[in-house]
């Protein structure tokens, strides 16, 4: 039974860096992609990007200049960094496990609320 | 980027109703289309992947169909726990875009 637990700073000032980590419990860390998705308050889901166990990444072009993802295979963790945040980056951030087959996301973290405000 | 257009944006239905939600992709995505259910304050839950494969543990009243550019999620008989927001997502290519969502509420 795979479980994802995520954490990170919940309140940021404009221009600061958002940093979130997702811990993977159970089963294998390798053999999957690991994704980040966000949801602004009252709005829909936005795919941020994905990373596999070897560090290969795909990012949303709308965020590509500010986003970075990394993996720590020894600790079964993966992380998201988003630079130069603004109020538009406020929302709930989710991590998720992604299968290579059709790239579907089957297990999700509970979400971390991030607020960007001065 | 592949755009995904989901409709309707909202619908009102009663318990026992048959509900249909559609998604249209801006280009062919073969069968790389997934459906999620989200309830307030919760993470999305995978219902259907690869257009028509039911995720383990999901009730059989949920079904998906379609290929190419046009896809459908059907709830055969709406249950009280099905009132939620539903999203489709294309996973054919990055960025793996979501539809705008369909909120299903009680009539």
Task: Walk me through what this model shows.
- The complex is a heterodimer of chains A (118) and B (107).
- In chain A, 0% of the residues lie in helices and 53% in strands.
- Chain A has strands spanning 3-8, 11-12, 18-25, 33-39, 46-52, 57-59, 67-72, 77-82, 91-98, 105-108, 112-116.
- Chain B is globular and about 35 Å long.
- The mean pLDDT of chain B is 98.
- Classes of the chains: A mainly beta (118), B mainly beta (107).
**Unreliably modeled segments of chain B:** none
Number of helices of chain A: 0
Largest sheet entry of chain A: 7 strands, mixed
Distance between the termini of chain A: 40 Å
The count of helical stretches of chain B stands at 0
Q: Which tags fit this structure?
A:
heterodimer, A: 118 residues, seven-stranded mixed β-sheet, four-stranded antiparallel β-sheet, B: 107 residues, mainly beta, six-stranded mixed β-sheet, 0% helix, 48% strand
Outline the secondary-structure elements.
The complex is a heterodimer of chains A (118) and B (107).
Chain A: E1 3-8, E2 11-12, E3 18-25, E4 33-39, E5 46-52, E6 57-59, E7 67-72, E8 77-82, E9 91-98, E10 105-108, E11 112-116
Parallel strand pairs in A: 2-11
Antiparallel strand pairs in A: 1-3, 3-8, 4-5, 4-9, 5-6, 7-8, 9-10, 9-11
Chain B: E1 4-7, E2 10-13, E3 19-25, E4 33-38, E5 45-49, E6 53-54, E7 62-67, E8 70-75, E9 85-90, E10 102-106
Parallel strand pairs in B: 2-10
Antiparallel strand pairs in B: 1-3, 3-8, 4-5, 4-9, 5-6, 7-8, 9-10
Can I get a quick summary?
Chain A is mostly beta strands and 118 residues long.
């Amino acid at each position: 039974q795979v479980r994802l637990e995520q954490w990170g700073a919940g309140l940021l000032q404009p221009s600061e860096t958002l940093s979130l980590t997702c811990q993977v419990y159970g089963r294998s860390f390798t053999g999957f992609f690991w994704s980040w998705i966000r949801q602004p308050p009252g709005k829909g889901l936005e795919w941020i990007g994905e990373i596999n166990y070897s560090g290969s990444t795909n990012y949303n072009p709308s965020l590509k200049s500010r986003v970075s993802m990394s993996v720590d295979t020894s600790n079964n963790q993966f992380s998201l960094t988003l630079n130069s945040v603004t109020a538009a980056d406020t929302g709930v951030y989710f991590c998720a496990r992604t299968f290579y087959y059709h790239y579907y996301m089957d297990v999700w973290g509970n979400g971390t609320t991030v607020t960007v405000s001065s | 980027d592949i755009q995904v257009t989901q409709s309707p944006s909202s619908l009102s239905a009663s318990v026992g109703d048959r509900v249909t939600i559609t998604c249209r992709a801006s280009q062919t995505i073969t069968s790389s289309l997934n459906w999620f259910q989200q309830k307030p304050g919760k993470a999305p839950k995978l219902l259907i992947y690869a257009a028509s494969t039911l995720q383990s543990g999901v009730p059989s009243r949920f079904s998906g169909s379609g290929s190419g550019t046009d896809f459908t999620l059907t709830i055969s008989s709406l249950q009280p726990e099905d009132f939620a927001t539903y999203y489709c997502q294309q996973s054919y290519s990055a960025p793996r875009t979501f539809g705008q969502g369909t909120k299903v509420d009680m009539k």
